[in-house]
């Protein structure tokens, strides 16, 4: 029985949805039961079909009923399944918003990474044995009293650390900047997130390298951006491609990882850097120079930063301690013009009020102590050793299976398979043989590539892992 | 940041113009960007307005900046004739996205807070002298080696800390939960942000208390939510109002701060808590129980958590160390059903990859050491002392001007003026008398209320601050 009052202030569709809701609550319609078709119910009540559609839409949106093409409208079963009556339909809630889950293979790699008996060639981070825990300890011993720890929160970041980073940029890269142009973030990742939220709108076009680390994150997709690829050769991306993409799609921002790129380890040549900076200046497009790896050069030089070449404030620079200290410290920094910084700070004030003072104090002491440079020098020699080991094994035992370029720095070797093997088969068979691999497709490459991280395993482990990888290839070919 | 040396041989205006020039050169101010007004910059640096005029004149004469009547002073675009064409139009970029800047008065309060010669009755945090720096030090001394620091990143939070928090919820509130239902966030704020992003869509309706701390943040507005108010009386909000709002506006989530509410210090009565939990269960609406203050009871009891009364998983609980340890530690936690947690983790993986391990280790050791409870006991007795001092002064000297209820815990006294005074006049006159006040309108109240924080000043300072506040009232009436 329906009681519709056409003179009521409450809209009719709302009266319908309220009464239907009550019927469901009282058990008149039980979970899974089929509701009248829209037309039938409209006839029965004596309203337009669209009014019933509206009422059904509302109940669908809160997850109380489900509509399936072909099979009509039903009272939701999920809602009532295990959880007691009254429990919100979390499924309906969590479908709101725009955060895509990670790529299934990334999730799988993440799961497998917890298993310490597997050899991890897939993760993007440094191994635990490279973490300078014993060097950091004296740093946090120096963190003294209440005054310091109680520094007023600053959404731009602890000012002494911003000063230290401005100095670091000058000493290391000869880049002039001021502490006011520096913003400390929870890794480079947070800066990238803030930029997608604050400088771009859904539907905007951006350009990124292909392949790229960025493909492994659903970040840009979640922000509703249109993503265009800049292919990489031995000298990095081609600046002319940026122009073409601008002309065709009006790209609004270029995200690049120009030095020891993740995953190819390719660096953009000096000439192309200059051309790109000029090109973007002439097109007035900002470039994000995402630079976690530049200190990790095996040959002691990495060329100039684009930030150094930039005279018009086009280049937004991103630094991070994740690849030189450890990802768990969560310290990154953005160098950008004032309007960008203050916009990002507005956003951040809503997101988390800024970073905890603890990692900022630790980072500040460490970077000012002189120990940071020492540590990086040690780290680089260790990384080079591991890379050499991996390269010599690959040369000796893998030449039938794959090709690669020798990296001049960074953490990765980018492998190209000579023989086509289905990636998921390769991945799973490798896991059976106790090796975790990172298939290139996750990073936006076509089938047949693998990113090998030599930074997570000791030399001995690397040998075993590569042996198991080789066994996998032999099994599959 | 300006570094003016009043003893230098160089005239002050020259120091200003030199530093401004440098800021422009280094890209802190880009071509076309607007400079502070003369008055504002003069205030900021602490010089006469005429000095800034002189400095601006100088830079205008060399064409580096431009002054237009009515539209203020800008960095010249012409000067950059050739290169500047390429500087992106940052204004257009930063207009993207949906982050509203904070309320102008909040910004002003924030600025004034840097001036340590003013008495701060406005800030929402504990004062520096209440920060347990000396108790935390032994905690981070215990943070040992690489293994621990190098814990694999976990976007849900460091597992041992999640275990500690589950135990804390049991011991302190008799709430049963599991480490898997706990997510560690960068303060409660990040949890609130994540919920608005993941559980709600633009256009959705929510209900919050009025007045409320939430009005001081543009968070919900930025997320495009429709916000409906739940008025507060001496027993907190009225559960029937939630029902009415549901019927009228289909509110999807209720955000509440039920214990020692910010700013009223009112606690929701036990009966209303129960009614509310029942009501929300019958409507299937989740309640966010935002609870930073429950440990700060002056009478040793705070009643039950709604989370404890909740049998259907309707209540999402938010805890924080911000009001018991310090806001700078940035440790908060959410207790929620699995689907909610995993959704929020997807989002967080795109935002910042999770929290730094440092504050998590410190919090974990501190909360497990037994020292945390000791510290809270000490903190509460100190807060009660300060509150008593404030109350007795208010009773003795302010009875002509205002009324209030005595708080039973928390950090705030909510003052109602007996005589109407325009809020901005009150605020500015108070600042002239060296007191920073928080006008109630910023917190969603009608004119004529003030939130007084007794937690930031020592008893002696409180006395002086209140004396200056009284002087202000007398001047304005
Ligand atoms: C190119 C690149 N950018 C950004 C990041 C994110 O780094 P962070 O840990 O600083 O957030 C990574 C991490 O792998 C990376 O490789
Ligand atoms: C009611 C309420 N919720 C949340 C917060 C944010 O706290 P946190 O520092 O934990 O992010 C505050 C801080 O003032 C608050 O008063």
TrEMBL record, chains A, B:
<keyword id="KW-0804">Transcription</keyword>
<dbReference type="GO" id="GO:0008483">
    <property type="term" value="F:transaminase activity"/>
</dbReference>
<dbReference type="Pfam" id="PF00392">
    <property type="entry name" value="GntR"/>
</dbReference>
<dbReference type="Pfam" id="PF00155">
    <property type="entry name" value="Aminotran_1_2"/>
</dbReference>
<keyword id="KW-0032">Aminotransferase</keyword>
<keyword id="KW-0808">Transferase</keyword>
<dbReference type="InterPro" id="IPR004839">
    <property type="entry name" value="Aminotransferase_I/II_large"/>
</dbReference>
<keyword id="KW-0238">DNA-binding</keyword>
<dbReference type="InterPro" id="IPR036388">
    <property type="entry name" value="WH-like_DNA-bd_sf"/>
</dbReference>
<dbReference type="InterPro" id="IPR051446">
    <property type="entry name" value="HTH_trans_reg/aminotransferase"/>
</dbReference>
<dbReference type="InterPro" id="IPR000524">
    <property type="entry name" value="Tscrpt_reg_HTH_GntR"/>
</dbReference>
<dbReference type="InterPro" id="IPR015422">
    <property type="entry name" value="PyrdxlP-dep_Trfase_small"/>
</dbReference>
<feature type="domain" description="HTH gntR-type">
    <location>
        <begin position="10"/>
        <end position="78"/>
    </location>
</feature>
<keyword id="KW-0663">Pyridoxal phosphate</keyword>
<comment type="similarity">
    <text>In the C-terminal section; belongs to the class-I pyridoxal-phosphate-dependent aminotransferase family.</text>
</comment>
<dbReference type="InterPro" id="IPR015421">
    <property type="entry name" value="PyrdxlP-dep_Trfase_major"/>
</dbReference>
<dbReference type="InterPro" id="IPR036390">
    <property type="entry name" value="WH_DNA-bd_sf"/>
</dbReference>
<keyword id="KW-0805">Transcription regulation</keyword>
<protein>
    <submittedName>
        <fullName>PLP-dependent aminotransferase family protein</fullName>
    </submittedName>
</protein>
<dbReference type="InterPro" id="IPR015424">
    <property type="entry name" value="PyrdxlP-dep_Trfase"/>
</dbReference>
